[in-house]
Design goal:
By secondary structure, the protein is an alpha/beta fold. The chain folds into 2 domains: 4-136 and 163-169, Ribonuclease Z/Hydroxyacylglutathione hydrolase-like (Metallo-beta-lactamase, Chain A, 4-Layer Sandwich), CATH 3.60.15; 174-254, no CATH class. 31% of the residues lie in helices and 25% in strands. It is built from 8 helices and 14 strands. The chain has a 6-stranded mixed β-sheet, with helices on one face. β9 and β10 form a beta hairpin. The chain binds zinc ion and fe (iii) ion. The site of fe (iii) ion has 6 residues, from α2.
Length: 255
Amino acid sequence: MPLILTTVPCLEDNYAFIIANPETGEAAVVDVPEAAPINAAIKAGGWRLTTVLLTHHHWDHVDGLNGLDNRSALKIIGAKRDARRLPALDHAVSEGDTITVCGHDADILDVSGHTINHIAFHFASEKLAFTADSLMALGCGRLSEGTHAQAWTSLKKIRALPRDTLICSGHEYTQANARFAQTLDPHNSELISRVQAVDAARAAGQPTVPSTLDLEMRTNPFLRADAPDLMAHLGMTDADPADVFAEIRTRKDRF
Ligand code: ZN
Ligand code: FE
């Protein structure tokens, strides 16, 4: 039976995600921006929270941990290479590891860039990828630590996942990302219709996350750094795609 995914808005514009196994009642949460909305969602679902998956060390992804109900019984899983700056881990993982969460396997990807040692959790059988601030809806996280080359390598790893994978990312930044994307890709008809859908969703108070990898690959400029039309628009037709990515990221930082 498939996992049940719940998107939990937290703080101003963060998302946590609960995955729950309807047969066993077990649940896990990906990132803990704040405890109260997660505790409430677990209670509302009638789940038993057993596991916390941490994508990276930033406060807006970990600070709610100690406020979770039943905190001492929770198994905390995060990147081995970042163990020194993450909350104490019960299971430290590295790229290539496979873990079992709520009865389903998840592969660990290193998606350094936004931070070094940021990880993503890919549940292949569930077609779910938890990318937090590495790949976002219509955007990618600011590079607070990693290099452009590192971030581009990370995005290519995510891009290699099956296209029907649901990208569960960490923030509601989609409208601002959309305005920027349109400056680079003004004639992309799929982007134009996505922006309309995003604006309508936000006007109705709905989240725009998660999104499919397929839609991101067709509309997210950061995943399109090697697309001939985008390269031409930037006057970088013969450039290395990593340099095109760097140009796009630099423009976004100034936008
Ligand atoms: Zn972050
Ligand atoms: Fe964040």
